[in-house]
Protein 1
Amino acid sequence: MQNYQEQLPQQQQQQPHYDMMNSGRPANEMVNPQIMNTAFQNQYRAATPQQRPAQFTPQQLNQIQQQQQQQQQQQQHMQTHAQQFQQQLQQPQPMQQQQLLQTKPQMIPQHIPLESSLQQTTHWKDQLQLLEASRKSNVTHFYARHAAMNSRRGKAESVKTQSLVEVTKALLESEVQVQEQQAKQKLSHDEEEGGEGEIDEDLIPRIKLKSFPDQLWGALDLSGQDIPVLAPNLFKYEFLTKLYLNGNNLTSVPKEIKHLKHLRVLDLSNNQLTSVPYEMGLLFHMKYLYLFDNNLTSLPQEFGNLIELNFLGIEGNPHFDLGLAKILAQKGTRSLILHLRDNVPITVEEPARKWIKLNDDQVAIKEDDETAAERATPEDSDEGDSGETFTVYTHNVLCHHYATVKMFPHTPSWALNWDYRRAIIQKQLLASNADIICLQEVESQSYEQFWTPLFSEHGYKGLFQAKNRSKRFSAEAAKKVDGCAIFYKSDVFGLYLNHPVDYTQLVLNSNKYEKTDDVFNRFQSRDNVGLVTVLGHKKTNEKIVVANTHLHWDPAYNDVKAVQVGVLVQEMESVVSKLASDPKSVPMVICGDLNSTLDSAVYEFLSTGFSKEHHDINGRNYGSFTEQGFSHPFNLRSAYDHIGHTKFTNFTPNFTDVLDYVFYTPGNLQVKGLLGGLDDDYTDHFVGLPNIHLGSDHLSLFAKFKFNKRSSTTTSMGTSRRDIGGGGRSRKT
């Protein structure tokens, strides 16, 4: 096998190369080996009076000499191992060399033909130096051998060898990458916000990443084995954080690699790859990706998702896209990723969510014709219903104050802009033509200046409740506080009652809630709110209670969420008591972003009517809530439970699950249709929302209901059909 070093361009040979045996420092800057070895063994010290030989007895001197001899023997033993390992890096063993020559052609090192000025940049010098280190790593199980050697050395403070990844880290840490920082600031989403600044607790990712606490290993070395095809079972090891596949005969990478979402390091150097699958762009947490010495010509646009990538090795691909290589040479890996992210072409079609019809038994009707299923609309569920139906739409629209680069680095700059996202959300809201619309994270100023005028033009009236913090802010600052909003069609419903719910104030100011330490230490500082309204359906004279809320986000405070929803339901009980003596006789709908999964105390409480010994609330003291358990008299069910729920309503790189719900009372309402989730064929191109098609990190939910029967109950409010027609005043707060 030819020696790569002899064939490198002259300018590459002149630049300092990093020695993998010496902590990543340039070979021409290394300290004298003898001094280094003694320093690492804590022997390089100035002589003190206590250390002078004259002060030691002959027996002590003999003991010291024996210790020094042992240390010298250990040092010689380690140096021998290091020399053998260095020889192994420089040239394969004779038997290995014969096997390699028999199975793959003799490779002549090639390079990307960049102009000479670009080859002198710091970023491209990194490429060249690490390319040379990579070519020395193509022996069988190089990384495993390296790890084993360093492990055998144990705690001995001698010079340890460095792998390709460690050399990369040393290079990057030693450079002041001014251009990259400038590019990062230039492409930041936060220009109009005046910089990123400190993160408010509401901006922290809502749910933490789940890990594998019982997994004892996470790295797999399959390097240097001439593997032509990867076995499918490899991609079942979802716990892997490092995967080494360099020095093989791979011509393709299976798309199933997308399942290895925890990968931080992937080495595919020295293979026969002509392309890599776009699914590699879904490995959001990748930090070091080596693609040296292949036949790649470009990168998938989905690589714009790899926002955590510190280094991308592409040198040694002679036909690689010069435009992309130029960006990397001038500005580095991060700027290349940002370029791919912000210049994503609209090649993926806008997602078409299917409308799912349910029969009288509340079972989804399967459409024989796939095209007919895609074209189905809520109006198709109206057969024979005689105007006894209504639709409900709920969506967390992602307040633009939370849509920062720190929260959503995977989203293109222009797609994260509020004007762009608002236009998408507006289009979807109006296209739904829903009778009742419940929104969360609506900014106060946007509600007054944009949403209210917009919906008014389309026949809606609105209600709004801002978070409690708005009361502590100045009038100008309060405009930026978000809250919950309900819009309803004034020709379909009339307003009877609007009851704002401020969870913290209700608990602190009401005698029915015990003031425990958990109330003051955990609950008091959360300022989430809700709205409880009573609407009258004009065609049927039915009254319905509609609640909209946004619970606290932090999974470390699931007990707080349970108390918040407990307070909400108690307030609904108070409202229902004004409508009928039997609380189960009044139709109810609860919408919102509950920030709670299907296994939470919140979901258990709402769906079963009781929750006491749930792990979310165990060990907490909230008075009767925890002593007697959370309970309510209503019969509630999640509308989406009829179709097994969507796969998710919240989609981010670190968390994908159901957080949003539409609960209803099946005793007096029937589900006629539901808006389905997103297809896998669509989501496979993204690591999270928002994106170019969807304006929030949450999916909207859309349900169609039918009244089971008309109520003849006269309420204490003295309402009548004529009163419904008269509407009612919207109480805005």
Protein 2
Amino acid sequence: HPNPKWNGATMRDSSDYLVNTFFAAVRKKLNRDGLRWYGIRTVEPHHDGTVHWHMMVFAHPEEIDTIVSHTRDIAIQEDRHELGDDITPRFKAEYVDGSKGTPTSYIATYIGKNLDSRAVDGIDPKTGKPRVDHETGKSMAESVERAIGWARLHRVRQFQFFGIPSRQVWRELRRLASQMARNPEGPQRLKDDAMDAVLAAADAGCFATYIEKQGGVLVPRKDYLIRTAYDLADELNDYGEQSVQIYGIWSPLIGESSRVCTHPDNWKLVRRKPEAEDSARENGFDLQGGPAAPWTRGNNCPRVQETDNNGTEQQEERPALWPQLPDGVDVDEWMRSLKRHERRALMRSLRDKQAKNSSDEMQSWTQSRKQQRPLPDNHELLAKEWRESAESLGLHIGEQQMQHLLRGGSLYVDGSIIAPQGFEIVRKPDTRPDSRITQLWQRLSRNHGVNSTEIRHNPVSSYLKQLGASDPEAAARLASTLQ
């Protein structure tokens, strides 16, 4: 029987709820109260395919009870009435019992049974019987295979560390160490001794030492020594936007002088050129009369394409011949008099001309964007003056944001545009159409509790939830129909 409370949510929605609603709320609460934790979470499926977590958490002994209390309150706050006095179906916390095993053995059990069934297949030496999953009642090997298939099908991240230094920085440091090893004539260490110690730990593959040299655990992220450095991409993406890409590493505690590039090359996917020897074996030839119109509605072939004597495709397009408008003739009557292939040739020519003009405009705009990238000669003085001006407006501009402003960019904050004007920072209202739409959704959310994200990304689930609030029986009938 369908659950009358089901609102059309998918398995992925249950995972997103735990990540974006539950875990995000816990992190915000702990950060506001100055509480620190770190650990790992693993993901497993329920009997109905939804997500549940196992977490191993470490914290200061005097703070652990408060952390557990905050986490429990956030976990059970939604639909609290359905739990009654027993909240264990929603949340359960236990201290690690040293007599039963170490924290490593506890979490290794959940990691192992979600990686490979061979590790749990066969006979349990303690009982002399096949290993059985106590949660499903099936053999452990079968449960592992099911969990792996479930995670791959729904693209669920099965393991996630939190509260420790960045794994992206770890990867960039190991990349940098490999680049230094391949270039023995270049620098073999970083200028700053503390940063070089973190690099050495990453190069040696010792993650524990890497955490220690970065600043340890149970500290704010801003206190880590090395962070990932980002920069604006050299080329626009497919949507004409200038995105952000990884530049390398840097230390906020030292400043811009500590930036080190780990991505000196930009790679691009290009179409492979045909091999000469393959084309020589199978020479092509042109047919007289050109390509004929397709019999079907669609044609995946290029509009104008021919081959040379060696069978290699020629990409240069021949100029399309289209009918000319005679003098003194009505346009409407002339269009109706054209044959089908003449109308197609005319529309093709107009589209190609428009596409070429758009391409030229995009190329010129790209060049203008690139000309804004170099920093001005007095960028240090400008940065100092702009920070003081921003502080007078109650704004804090970070290092990456300042680099963006120095290169001619603007910042969009809370419906306003933050931009430099001479030696001052000014705030102007953001009148872009997309900004107005965002402000409208925010107003609906603030005044009427409308979840714009759910409406835009999952309209069926949102409608079922609204219908269930007013007519639960109608919502249940609609949900069963959608199933």
Protein 3
Amino acid sequence: MDVKDYRAEAAVFFCKATNANCKSLSFRRFARASEAIRFAVEELAPRALASCSLEVDEQHFFGREIRPLYDSPDYPLRRRPAKLHSRRA
């Protein structure tokens, strides 16, 4: 599945906790789906990315479905050099 519109508003739901017992979710809204995807891949810890969800219009992406959106040739933003976020992959 791919994002229909990388310019659409989006939201990311994620857990900041570093252990497996996440008791509350954090929420962040973005003006564009491309920015939300970049945040999830480049800023979240690997465990948080694995358990987060992305909502774009009526589409929902969970955990491992998000990284392929970032790696897609259709992704419109410049990517951070791989070595700067490779620990998050």
